Amino acid sequence: MARLFLQWFLSAGALLLVANFFSGVQVHSLSSALWAALILGLLNAVLRPVLVVLTLPVTLVTLGLFLLVVNGLVFWLASGLLGGLQVSGFWAAVWGALLYSACGLVIDSLLARFFPK
C-alpha cells in the first residue's frame, strides 16, 4: 500500500516536472497534479488497453508509432476532464505524454529497487 501512495505522489511530481520543462503542459497546483496523476492512472488502466486493441491494425502498420498518438489522446482526455491540467493542443499532449511516460519509467525502476515483489 505504501508503494502505491509513493508512486502516486511521485507521478504527481513527474507531472509538475513535465509542466516546468514543457510549456505546452500547465499544472495549476500540487492538488491539481495529484488529481491529474490519479485520473491519468485510471485512464491508463481502463481506457488505454481498449484503445490499443481497437487501433491494433493501425499500430501494426505504423510499427508501433501510433501508440504515441494513443498516449497523447489519453493525456489530452485527462486534461479535458480536469480544470487544473491544461494542455495547449494535440501535439503538446503527445509530447507531454512522452515526457510523462519517460518519468514513469524512471519512477517504476526506482520503486522496483526499493519495494521488491
Compose a concise summary of this entry:
With 117 residues, the chain is mostly helical.
Report on the structure:
- With 117 residues, the chain is mainly α.
- It has five helices and two strands.
- The chain has helices at residues 2-21, 30-54, 56-61, 66-81, 90-114; strands at residues 25-27, 85-87.
- The chain has a two-stranded antiparallel sheet with strand order 1-2.
- Helix 1 crosses helix 2 (30-54), helix 2 (30-54) packs across helix 4 and helix 4 (66-81) crosses helix 5.
- The two termini are 12 Å apart.
Provide keyphrases for this structure.
117 residues; mainly alpha; 5 helices; 5% strand
The share of residues in helices is over 70%
Strand tally: 2
What is the end-to-end distance?
A: 12 Å
Using only C-alpha atoms, the radius of gyration works out to 14 Å
Annotation field: number of helices? 5
Q: Give average pLDDT, whole number.
A: 94
Find the structural class using helix and strand composition: mainly alpha
- Secondary-structure element pattern, one letter each: HEHHHEH
Strand order in the sheet with the most strands = 1-2
The biggest beta sheet reads: 2 strands, antiparallel
Query: Could you state the oligomeric state of the chains shown?
Result: single chain
Tell me the strand percentage band: 5-15%
Low-confidence parts: none
Shape: globular
